[in-house]
Specification:
The structure is a homodimer.
Chain A lengths: L1 H7 L3 H9 L6 H14 L5 H7 L7 E6 L5 H16 L3 E6 L4 H13 L4 E4 L10 H5 L3 E5 L9 E5 L1 H14 L5 E4 L6 H16 L9 E2 L5 H12 L7 E4 L2 H10 L5 E5 L13 E4 L2 H16 L8 E4 L2 E3 L12
Parallel strand pairs in A: 1-2, 1-3, 3-4, 4-5, 5-11, 6-7, 6-8, 8-9, 9-10
Antiparallel strand pairs in A: 10-12
The structure holds a DNA duplex.
Chain lengths: 328, 328
DNA sequence: CTGAAAGCGCTAACAC
DNA sequence: GTGTTAGCGCTTTCAG
């Protein structure tokens, strides 16, 4: 910047004014500065700028997900980045791999860079550790699930209700042995889905058989193994619900074609399988967009009490979930 | 930091030494500082730190992809962030939507934050604009395709050879009308795939019929429409190659089950379709991991001439690509 | 082992 | 319209 000022024969302050626009600078002076900037390939140093403007925004937000490679999270990331860009911010991204200590590390690295806000898909466990960051002004919004011990905005879906309804329909179609494969119930989202499953069984007067419940599954192969185990039982399930997309892929790898099946999350090609797969669809783009807008509202001074926004899900009946059970 | 120093009854310098470790500080003093840090919830301000250490690294890298929601790019992002974390860096992410001017904007926002390096999936068009950033010390590595006008490391696959071989096999199986749906050939990756297709046709003595080539397709529905058009021709194709995953999904939505089909990029459930889908698989995680390691090597002083790493692809024959043509 | 002074690149606040 | 001064929060350098 000093070099540019020298080159243009002005002070650093004038360069600053030209580079940032807005302030009144004589057109001829401005032109000289612009020429010098171009000649020297100067670019404003936002790090230094931010230091001086400590109470202004950094125009950086952070996004923390389980794993960006997960299609649901990828859609969330894409939509969040889109909003950030529209709002003139850049976005840091991190994957917690559902590990709270890793999440902590990444969040610390983010806040040290003075992010204006954080969009969080929280791992299991207490999020008290975020209090200092909050106190220091960092805004936080949760997506997909609320964070235990943290009173902030959250954008979620009614996991409990959606699964309960799906399982109710399976039972109504004559299934009495309904299996469930899910990730750890310690993660709120999956805990709710599991509760929805159990509630529907209870409402239908069906017993909850532990042998038909796969918990804590974290990958396709794990889900496949769990399903294979269930199918080998003396009285195997006649219908199955997969708690998320990854587990659905695993289950589909081993499930016979005629087996009733419902998956949480819609996915590509679901309608091209035989039979086409019935899913509980949520809209990750809508979720993330909503969350990002909430975050920016907070960043720009919205101080209303934290709210939880519940977005709709949609049961898309394509065939696999409508196969009749033995008691139809 | 001043507050912490006051609380602990030491100077700011001592706080700095304790917070950053390494330097020799009396254990008792250090303990007092640690207590003060905890009490006040102090966290080092990396923005200020970085300003003073202008010639040190920012420990921020930037990743620029077409769109994170694309499964291939999502896998790249996940793998790159993994390496970044291992190397103690955080990662900014941006989507260009294959638009050069948008890419430019995002890259500028990244370099203004003094990123140490950039992993780039370059959009079509000249990347000369990156020269100043390079001169200023920002390291750059391209993934999936090289950037026109920029002499930097790149990690790619042999798109040309992989498609040529796949189409050669289709021709060898008796197909004479082979269709192709691809994104714009102005993007290097897709240009090479298209050339591979044309080269295989030529080698098999087959004419290249423009009516069987869908170019510049950017979404599933666009691919579906293109394929529908081809199928309505008086002499429709008997085999089809889709240039990427997104287009494959679109094509599969309208393609009759008995139609020969090969897709570039492996995808979930490819083996569960009827017939199972033959694909040209690349390994996005390996690509990105390699690229990230290359980037960090550059950041840490590797000054060897830029090299292009070609990673292998694998033709996975699952059935859809082995269906015989009318002249088998 | 600890502290004081200076300055990273920029801009707020105030002169002129 | 433009320049000057000071200081953002930290660390480098040098002194004790």
């Amino acid at each position: 910047m000093k070099d540019v000022a020298a080159e243009a024969g002005v002070s650093a302050m004038t360069v600053s004014r030209v580079v940032n626009g807005g302030a009144a600078v004589a057109p001829r002076t401005a032109a000289r500065v612009v020429a010098a900037v171009r000649k020297l390939g100067y670019q404003r140093d936002d790090v230094a700028r931010q230091l001086r403007r400590t109470h202004e925004l950094s125009q950086i937000i952070g996004l923390l997900v389980d794993d960006v490679a997960d299609p649901f999270m990828a859609a969330v990331a894409s939509a969040a980045e889109d909003v950030a860009r529209q709002r003139g911010s850049v976005m840091l991204i991190g994957s917690s791999r559902a590990d709270l200590s890793r999440e902590r590390e990444v969040v610390a690295a983010f806040t040290a860079r003075r992010v204006d806000g954080l969009i969080l898909v929280p791992a299991a466990g207490s999020h008290r550790f975020l209090r200092p960051a909050q106190a220091q002004g960092t805004k936080i919004v949760c997506v997909d699930r609320a964070a235990p011990g943290l009173n902030v905005d959250a954008v979620v879906v009614d996991n409990f209700g959606a699964v309960r309804e799906a399982v109710r329909r399976l039972a109504a179609r004559g299934h009495r042995r309904i299996g469930y494969v899910g990730d750890t119930p310690r993660i709120r989202t999956f805990g709710e889905r599991r509760r929805g499953y159990l509630a529907a069984l209870a409402a239908a007067g069906l017993p909850a058989d532990p042998a038909l419940i796969g918990d804590g599954l974290r990958s396709g192969p794990q889900a496949a193994a769990a399903v294979t185990g269930m199918l080998a039982l003396p009285d195997p399930p006649t219908a199955l619900l997969a708690g998320n997309e990854i587990l659905a892929f695993g289950a589909l790898a081993v499930l016979p074609a005629g087996h009733a099946f419902v998956a949480f999350d819609d996915f590509a090609l679901a309608d091209r399988l035989t039979p086409p797969v019935t899913v509980i669809a949520q809209d990750p783009v809508a979720l993330a967009t909503r969350a990002a807008h909430l975050l920016f509202a907070r960043i720009h001074g919205d101080v209303a009490p934290p709210r939880t926004v519940v977005m709709p899900t949609r049961l898309i009946e394509r065939g696999s979930g409508e196969l009749p059970g033995p008691f139809a």
